[in-house]
Amino acid sequence: RAGARTFRTVTADQLAVQSDRDLQKTLRQAAGMVGKADLAGAVRLYEQAAAAAAQPEVWDGLGRLYLQVGRKDEALGAFAKAMEQDPNYLLPYIHLGTLYSEERKYKELLMVAKRALAIDSKWMTAHAFLGEAQASTGDLEAAQRSAETASELTQGKAPGPYLLLAKVRWARRDCAGALRHMERYLQLKTSAR
């Protein structure tokens, strides 16, 4: 009786290991291209890797590269694909939320924040995104609660929530409160460097 390896049969585990090696090699090559400012070449390699591997990390990386070369619509698609591959993988939520924030698409930012909070209700970044979206729609009370929650989750050691709190206080015409939060923001922001 012939054994499993008699005819050099390749097992699924062996294929997976080789596939992982190939993927890692491709991603290392892409990183080298990014280092040499060959973003178009890096995008091509990431596109090949994403088509072959379909891993959320690869789709997220491809989305970030698309952003660097100004292909925002394709970046949105890549981030969506990463979230589809693994809805609990939070990095695409950061990148998507940051993009929506920069473009002032607060309705979309609100949806990303709520979706992320459904995955991890103690994720500071999602609370900060939520607060930013709430502030943009004029719901300053909710924005303040979200920013305070974000600050509490990091035990007051992250600067971002304090900037949002300063903006909310300023919008409420509380100059002393805005100044206090801005000072804390600057203290944390400059001490982190």
Rg, rounded, reads: 22 Å
Query: For the terminal residues, how far apart are their CA atoms?
Result: 67 Å
Please give the number of β-strands.
0
Query: How helical, in percent, are the residues?
Result: over 70%
Order of helices and strands: HHHHHHHHHH
Global morphology? elongated
State the major sheet: none
Name the beta content range.
under 5%
Question: What ranges have pLDDT less than 50 throughout 5 or more consecutive residues?
Answer: 1-17
Number of helices: 10
* Secondary-structure content class: mainly alpha
Q: Give the averaged pLDDT, no decimals.
A: 87
Can you walk me through this structure?
- It contains ten helices and no strands.
- It is elongated and about 55 Å long.
- Helix 3 (56-68) runs antiparallel to helix 4 (72-85).
- With 193 residues, it is mainly alpha-helical.
Helix and strand topology:
Blueprint: H1 12-35, H2 39-53, H3 56-68, H4 72-85, H5 91-102, H6 106-119, H7 124-136, H8 140-153, H9 160-171, H10 175-191
Helix pairs in contact: 1-2, 2-3, 3-4, 4-5, 5-6, 5-7, 6-7, 7-8, 7-9, 8-9, 9-10
Short structural description:
This protein is mainly α and 193 residues long. The chain has helices spanning 12-35, 39-53, 56-68, 72-85, 91-102, 106-119, 124-136, 140-153, 160-171, 175-191.
